[in-house]
Amino acid sequence: MSSSVQSLTVLGATGSIGQNTLDVVARHPERYRVFALTAARQVDTLFEQCRRHRPRYAVMVDRDSAAALRARVREAGLATEVLDGPQALCAVSEAPEVDAVMAAIVGAAGLAPSLAAARAGKKLLLANKEALVVGGELFLEAVRSGGATLLPIDSEHSAVFQSLPDDASTWERRVDKIVLTASGGPFRTRDPDTLANVTPEQACAHPNWVMGRKISVDSATMMNKALEVIEARYLFGLPPERIEVVIHPQSVVHSMVQYRDGSVVAQLGTPDMRVPIAYGLAWPERIASGAAPLDFLALGALTFEAADARRFPGLPLAWAALRAPSGTTAVLNAANEEAVAAFLDGRLRFDRIHAVNAETLQDVLPSKPGSLDDLLLLDEQARVRARHVIQRWQA
Ligand code: NAD
Ligand code: MG
């Protein structure tokens, strides 16, 4: 595979991960060809990307945006065909011409196309952690039955994957625990009593990473780490009690694996998503990512501290949801998506995101989802419940 050109679909191309992916791809034109680019509604950005990368297809979920893009593409004389609607996301993920799919849509909206890629046996580069948190065992089953290769793009999970031995059948036996690092986000040292009044702009001002707004808020509440604990459980198969979180404000150690003999293997690098993206794209090879090398002398100290339960009450929900009946992680994700959207909209106080998540988890009891439709129904039920809780907290 390494000598031939790989044909790539980028779901969520206009976002932070999508743009970083295209940056890496553009450095290696002999290796990658862009088959399809997708976005929700960012016409200008997707048009520029079409001009630069000449995909066979561009998908806009929003139909008016698709019409606008179609007109611009035609006017510019590009050969790209513009498709619209959520179904088209699946079509460009499972198309026979596609070798690899970068799943970089934000939220549960990315589940269906990620599953389509898994079932079609693609190399699936998973940034869209919510898809795995919602899909759970069903997602893994689709990967197995489709013969897909699932590669984590989330920096922590890429780090764990890089620190594990190749033979997955030995992980359970050799590994004591996985330690996920967390930066602690913008409020790591802020007085927890003042969290009621923080604004979306303050919550999105991450100290180490530039990311989309949803994941930025998740980093500020540490719900991002809660989702990552769930993601790690599904990706690596260790029981939840063998997954730990430690705060590491410099974001240089991207995560670690502790082995039975006490040895710890970690992956380090500058906080730049192009590193795990390049790793996933080229795996099992290594290619240039464009990231600056680590400068140990400039770094000075690497520090570690415990996550404060009063400041980050959402983090323990990960283990609670993993111990509850299957489907519970989907409920947690749906509640959190609704709560974060309400916070970004100015309809919910920052410190009440947790209340919405905890209450929704208590109220919505899943009955073992067995299909994508079951999951989507459960997701909708949880959202309805969460919106209700949000309304009550509004005032
Ligand atoms: P973003 O908000 O910057 O981009 C999201 C992309 O998804 C955009 O292209 C948008 O058009 C598209 N999109 C949004 N809603 C959609 C919908 N309903 N249907 C179809 N497409 C839709 O987000 P991001 O920061 O790039 O994050 C993307 C995913 O990667 C998230 O799941 C996030 O948790 C994960 N991730 C991001 C980072 C990072 O550094 N940004 C790191 C690790 C993991
Ligand atoms: Mg991460």
TrEMBL record:
GO terms for biological process: isopentenyl diphosphate biosynthetic process, methylerythritol 4-phosphate pathway involved in terpenoid biosynthetic process. Gene3D superfamilies: 1.10.1740.10, NAD(P)-binding Rossmann-like Domain. Mn(2+) binds at residues 154, 156, 228. Its cofactor is Mg(2+); Mn(2+). GO terms for molecular function: 1-deoxy-D-xylulose-5-phosphate reductoisomerase activity; isomerase activity; manganese ion binding; NADPH binding. Keywords: Isomerase, Isoprene biosynthesis, Magnesium, Manganese, Metal-binding, NADP, Oxidoreductase. 1-deoxy-D-xylulose 5-phosphate binds at residues 129, 155-156, 183, 206, 219, 224-225, 228. Residues 8-136 form the 1-deoxy-D-xylulose 5-phosphate reductoisomerase N-terminal domain. Its EC number is 1.1.1.267. Belongs to the DXR family. Catalyzes the NADPH-dependent rearrangement and reduction of 1-deoxy-D-xylulose-5-phosphate (DXP) to 2-C-methyl-D-erythritol 4-phosphate (MEP). This is 1-deoxy-D-xylulose 5-phosphate reductoisomerase. The gene is dxr.
